[in-house]
Structure formats: structure tokens, C-alpha cells
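Hi F.,

I've been meaning to write this up properly since the lab meeting, where we talked about keeping a consistent format for the predictions we share between groups. The idea is simple: the sequence comes first, exactly as it goes in, then the C-alpha cells exactly as they come out, then a line or two of notes. No screenshots and no reformatting. I'm using this chain as the first example so we have something concrete to point to.
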Amino acid sequence: MKKILSTVFLLFALITYGQNSISGVVTDENGVPLPGANVIIEDTNTGVSTDFDGNFEITASQGQILAFSYIGYTTQYIAAAGQSSLNISLQLDNELEEVVVTALGFAAVRDQQGSTSSVINSDDVIRSAEPTVVNALSGKASGVRITRSNGDP
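Output, unedited:
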């Protein structure tokens, strides 16, 4: 019984060996905490989110890569090298990708969208010299059908 118990204890010690708890704060370049920032260990399903003050705590093995990300900021990658505390400053990402949500609920990059779209400028409506806006929009966009009603129920 003592051998089994000591073997189980040794296995638990080996499993936790090499893993350390890493804590810290995720801020922006001005030092403002980023609540809800993601801290993910690359190539695993393990991750945490920062609290309201930007604090996080995660358990990682030495050599694993930690990815720090937040919407509108560039993702920063740091290798876990035995440190117990990290203070991460994320840089603002000036190049946000333009995304269009289609009628089916799919998000697509604007240039790769398979459907057609039409843009009608206000100048085109003004220059049309039509008495109403409905008349001015008629025939300007493909696939749009405009019907007029007299207002009766």
C-alpha cells in the first residue's frame, strides 16, 4: 500500500513539475488596464481573460508561448521562461480589417464578398430633380423594387 501511495504522490509531483503560475497585468501603451483581454497558451485550449483591473493568472509550462490579445490592439506573444510575474503593454492596432455582416449572419471581408452591393450618393438623389425621394431612388440600385402606396389600410 505504501508503494502505491508513494507512486501516486510521485506522479502528481511530476505532473506539476515544470508548471508555474504566471500572473500580471495587461495594459495599453498609456498604462490603462484592459479588462477582458485574452491570455491564451498557444496550441492548447487553455486560456483566461483579464479582470476589471487587467489582472490575470494562468498556469503554464516553461517554453510555452502565451498570446495576449484585445480587440483593436496587436497580439503580443511571450514565451514562458520561469517568470512568475508579467506586465504586458499592448500596442494600438491602426489597421482594423473591414468586415461586412451579410443577411445570412456570416462575416466576410468587404473585398471578398460574393454578393453585389450598390451605393447611392446623396448628390445623385439631389441632382435627379425628382419631386420625391422615392422617385429619385427608382432605378438607381439594381435589384431594388420600389412600390408606392396611397396610405389606405
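Notes:
Helices lie at 2-16, 122-127, 133-137.
The radius of gyration is 28 Å.

If this format works for you, I'll send the rest the same way.

G.
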